[in-house]
Amino acid sequence: MRPLTQEMLSSQPDLAPAWNVSQFAPERILQIGEGVFLRGFADWLIDRLNAAGSSVGRIVIAAPRPTGARNIERFRKQDGLYTVLLRGMENGRTVDRQEVVSSISRAIDPHLQWNDFLACARQREIDVVISNTTELGIQYAPQQYRAGQVPTTYPAKLAAYLYERYQAFGGDPKAGMTILPCELIDDNGTLLREIVIRHSQEWGLPAAFVEWVRLHNVFCNTLVDRIVTPFTPEADGAPELPYTDELAVVAEPFHMWAIEGGDHLRSRWPFAELGLSVYFVPCIEDYRLQKVRVLNGAHTAMACLGLLAEKQTVLDVMSDPVLHAFVERLIGSEIVPTVTPQVGDAEVLRRFAKDVIDRFNNPFLRHALTSIANNSLAKARIRLVPTIVEYADRHRVSPPLAAAAIALLCYACHPSCAQEAMDDPLRSRLQEIWVSETEADLAGTVTELLKASDVWGCDLAVLPGMADMVQDVMRLVQERGVVQAIAFWLQSQPVSEPMRR
């Protein structure tokens, strides 16, 4: 088959992108990072805007590391084109379609084309930087600055880039840039800004430049959420492409990009008009909270439940009617109502929760429970326990389904449990309690398990009804097995404050 190129598309109009590339030819965005995630996320989002007629412009891609050279060459061979295969669930319906993305104008390897990289800084129209250099990419590492020498780290490259821009436009405040780091670390924009300024000061660059960086460049904290994987044609169930594409990626329909500040981009990038989930907000903590409590909290609960029920993947759990009902009610009746008072937009939270159910039901994604279950007790402490404590404080009773999740997490630590042993000190701590309490009754053991504040971050035994609920669930599991125990537990608990659909 022929490779994906502009020439190939011109001979097959039915495969052409949804917008006229020449109409939006101006380059307006520099992207540091050529990997899978940004191809299926930011580049796709910008392509959607261009397809809808917004004059957003195109993206210059630069590799943050020498290892990105292979992808840079692939972009060149394919004229910046690649395919995004959207596969998953959206509003309860299966999505399985292919889109050719044409938002990339050209690709640069700064390690071989440093002058070309700096030349972008002298293009006034390029006033946005997007990056994803992995969680380790935004770190300080001492380096020297010499003209013509390529800095090794992303923050150092960005400092050199901004200094080039500062000189090119004489420190014009209007030449400042908006920087949108997509690296999955807290306060990514704030941290990147601090490192850029540190490099600038250590290099002895003019104080006026440092002030220009501080006052006239906007470093936004962001939060991104989407599962994107490489397209592997040989994988089971993979669709056939009518061309070869070495840059193709598979993305779930769900996407979320929360950008702190950046109000000046709202009118330029009208994502909301297209129903795209990009939010320009004063603070992204609401979005971080909903991700940790709803998505991650439900993941932690379902992983232990699923493994005890001898399931292997998230989809296996959601394909079981009983376990599916447990997960959906845990989210809709306990987690969402508890988190709602803490967020500014309850409707965004409810929509996110419904999207989570769709994501869990993705028939194209094999998300192993064992990977989610790693360090599950430490994760529960952050993702699940705060919901339990807040629910109990408001209702004067513990949440029954979240309590059942805690019961299963404790039960999985019993020495006789068939789950594979893990190198986890918190798990070992609960195992010690099980062993030391073998002669005591179950009630006493449960109390000691819940009192382990070094595991949970607080004393769960003092919460109203918590110990009784955990003990009841454990007895049900011993008598009926996990699935039947959960089925009985669901039937015995009233449904309260359900998630609106």
Automatic annotation (TrEMBL):
<keyword id="KW-0520">NAD</keyword>
<feature type="domain" description="Mannitol dehydrogenase C-terminal">
    <location>
        <begin position="284"/>
        <end position="471"/>
    </location>
</feature>
<dbReference type="GO" id="GO:0008926">
    <property type="term" value="F:mannitol-1-phosphate 5-dehydrogenase activity"/>
</dbReference>
<dbReference type="InterPro" id="IPR036291">
    <property type="entry name" value="NAD(P)-bd_dom_sf"/>
</dbReference>
<dbReference type="Pfam" id="PF08125">
    <property type="entry name" value="Mannitol_dh_C"/>
</dbReference>
<dbReference type="InterPro" id="IPR013328">
    <property type="entry name" value="6PGD_dom2"/>
</dbReference>
<dbReference type="InterPro" id="IPR013131">
    <property type="entry name" value="Mannitol_DH_N"/>
</dbReference>
<dbReference type="InterPro" id="IPR013118">
    <property type="entry name" value="Mannitol_DH_C"/>
</dbReference>
<dbReference type="InterPro" id="IPR000669">
    <property type="entry name" value="Mannitol_DH"/>
</dbReference>
<dbReference type="InterPro" id="IPR008927">
    <property type="entry name" value="6-PGluconate_DH-like_C_sf"/>
</dbReference>
<dbReference type="Pfam" id="PF01232">
    <property type="entry name" value="Mannitol_dh"/>
</dbReference>
<keyword id="KW-0560">Oxidoreductase</keyword>
<feature type="domain" description="Mannitol dehydrogenase N-terminal">
    <location>
        <begin position="27"/>
        <end position="261"/>
    </location>
</feature>
<dbReference type="GO" id="GO:0005829">
    <property type="term" value="C:cytosol"/>
</dbReference>
<dbReference type="GO" id="GO:0019592">
    <property type="term" value="P:mannitol catabolic process"/>
</dbReference>
<protein>
    <submittedName>
        <fullName>Altronate oxidoreductase</fullName>
    </submittedName>
</protein>
